[in-house]
């Protein structure tokens, strides 16, 4: 009878889940003790690569290259600052998972009511879908460019990446980490090669790293975006909310003794090293993308800044900036490498997006489903807006069709920036908590920088919301402003509700633990 029940349970698509985060891989990777620095770092290396993938997906390509085309090196500072913020947030996310043995979704749900938990779950699901839209567009365009597959058919083929995921789940988590790391190096090598050929203005590059007010200005508007909108797109594509959930889960894959403070301290330290090294590589990729937008092509030569337009420009010797690039472009190497890197980027993001979806579903609403089913549902939902965009522009010029896909991708990244405070704020509150973190709670400088990041990014997002609604081109300016202000009020109220429940929940948990200690 028991076996029959077990078999019946295995056949169910959705199951109740309230155990360890990503239970199948939790605590499965052995790590050394008392060994050398580099040997220990190698054992902890891997989760950082999975996280870094989210910082160099096709959405980043769009925002960074377009930022370079439109505003030269002005937005280099945005890439640098957002990368530093990402390092800070990912450190806190990993530390939360290691110390509390809960991922971010589980820790939030432990402190909030069911209603808020469901709202935050749906918001994070939409953020994952927004990321997936960029992956669908990037992968479909790469297939079209490399194999001349019609775009609509290529969009449907991207659904089949679920088969890649099924294969990867059979080979072990450590091998998945290695594959992802190799693909990252491929992407880095492709863009380093192309930028090296372009001989960029390095003085302008380094000057662009310095913060200026021009990076967050509302003027000029080039190609429908301002520097502020471009910066928010880069922030949304770089500091991604779902990555915080992912890192808090996969940081628990290492097998350690949670009763030993030194073991925990070692894990936090080497996980931070792994994360920062990989995110530094992601910074270089994004910086190279922006430099590519500026230096590879003649100034103002590229009218179509979509992936199609950039691919064609890499084949068009009239658009390239110097003789060396022109000589290489004649062989077709530049454009082919671009498309290969685009496809690699999309496949990398497939793995991390699916794992994150499982983390938030289990954590917020205690539901679990097979990874292949989870991926299939998310991808099919993400395909819809892409197909609608393709269908609506079918009778327009080629450049307009490409521009529409580009705008869809950029707007999806801006949405991520709005969802970000609802993961940043809980993460900061909980890692500041004595109740959750004990001796591992955030130091003073981490708390200060954390609050500056949360408040600063939230303010910029709300400040730019009216212009973002106008940029959609759907409503009049008056209606766009009204909708924007309604959205601002809803966001502020929801953030206040989240803060209230988290603080109250933290006090409740502290009282329960104190009572439990007293009873023992």
UniProtKB/TrEMBL annotation:
One of the GO BP terms on file: iron ion transmembrane transport
Pfam families associated with the record: Nramp
Task: Spell out where the chain crosses the membrane.
Answer: 36-55, 75-94, 115-141, 147-169, 176-196, 228-246, 279-297, 324-344, 376-394, 414-432, 444-463, 483-503
Provide the protein name: Divalent metal cation transporter MntH
Superkingdom of source:
Bacteria
Q: State the gene name recorded for this protein.
A: mntH_2
User: Where is the secretion signal located?
Assistant: none
Membrane topology field: Multi-pass membrane protein
What are the subcellular locations of this protein? Membrane
Q: What is its main location?
A: membrane
- Source organism phylogeny: Bacteria, Bacillati, Bacillota, Bacilli, Lactobacillales
One term of GO molecular function = cadmium ion transmembrane transporter activity
Keyword match Lipid metabolism: no
Assigned keywords, A-Z:
Membrane, Transmembrane, Transmembrane helix, Transport
């Amino acid at each position: 009878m028991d076996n029959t029940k077990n078999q019946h349970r295995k056949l169910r698509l959705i199951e109740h889940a309230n155990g360890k985060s990503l239970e199948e891989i939790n605590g499965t990777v052995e790590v050394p003790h008392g060994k050398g620095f580099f040997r220990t770092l190698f054992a902890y290396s891997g989760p950082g690569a999975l996280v870094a993938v989210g910082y160099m997906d096709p959405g980043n390509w769009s925002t960074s290259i377009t930022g370079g085309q439109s505003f030269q090196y002005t937005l280099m500072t945005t890439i640098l600052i957002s990368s530093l913020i990402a390092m800070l947030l990912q450190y806190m996310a990993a530390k939360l998972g290691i110390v509390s043995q809960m991922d971010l979704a589980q820790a939030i749900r432990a402190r909030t009511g069911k209603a808020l938990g469901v709202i935050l779950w749906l918001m994070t699901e939409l953020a994952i879908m927004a990321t997936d839209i960029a992956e669908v567009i990037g992968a479909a365009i790469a297939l079209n460019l490399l194999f001349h597959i019609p775009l609509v058919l290529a969009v449907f083929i991207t659904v089949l990446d679920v088969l890649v995921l099924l294969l990867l789940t059979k080979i072990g988590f450590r091998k998945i980490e290695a594959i992802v790391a190799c693909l990252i190096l491929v992407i880095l090598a492709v863009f380093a090669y192309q930028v090296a050929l372009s001989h960029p203005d390095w003085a302008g590059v380094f000057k662009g790293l310095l913060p200026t007010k021009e990076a967050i200005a509302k003027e000029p508007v080039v190609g429908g975006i301002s520097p502020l909108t471009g910066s928010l797109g880069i922030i949304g594509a770089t500091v991604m909310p779902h990555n915080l959930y992912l890192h808090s889960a996969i940081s628990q894959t290492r097998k350690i003794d949670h009763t030993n403070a030194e073991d925990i301290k070692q894990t936090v330290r080497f996980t931070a090293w792994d994360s920062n090294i990989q995110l530094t590589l992601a910074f270089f990729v994004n910086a190279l993308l922006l430099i590519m937008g500026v230096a590879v092509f003649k100034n103002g030569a590229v009218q179509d800044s979509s992936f199609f337009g950039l691919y064609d420009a890499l084949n068009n010797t009239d658009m390239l900036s110097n003789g060396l690039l022109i000589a290489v472009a004649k062989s077709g190497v530049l454009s082919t490498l671009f498309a290969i890197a685009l496809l690699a980027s999309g496949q990398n993001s497939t793995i991390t997006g699916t794992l994150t979806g499982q983390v938030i579903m289990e954590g917020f609403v205690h539901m679990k489903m097979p990874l292949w089913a989870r991926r299939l549902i998310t991808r099919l939902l993400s395909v819809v807006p892409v197909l609608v965009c393709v269908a609506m522009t079918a009778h327009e010029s080629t450049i307009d069709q490409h521009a529409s896909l580009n705008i869809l991708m950029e707007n999806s990244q801006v949405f991520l920036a709005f969802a970000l405070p609802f993961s940043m704020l809980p993460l900061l509150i909980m890692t500041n908590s004595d109740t959750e973190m004990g001796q591992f709670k955030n130091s003073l400088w981490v708390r200060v920088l954390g609050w500056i990041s949360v408040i600063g990014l939230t303010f910029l997002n709300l400040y730019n919301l009216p212009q973002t609604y106008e940029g959609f081109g759907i409503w009049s300016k008056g209606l766009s402003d009204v909708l924007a202000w309604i959205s601002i009020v809803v966001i502020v109220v929801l953030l206040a509700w989240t803060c209230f429940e988290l603080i109250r929940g933290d006090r409740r948990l502290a009282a329960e633990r104190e009572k439990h200690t007293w009873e023992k």
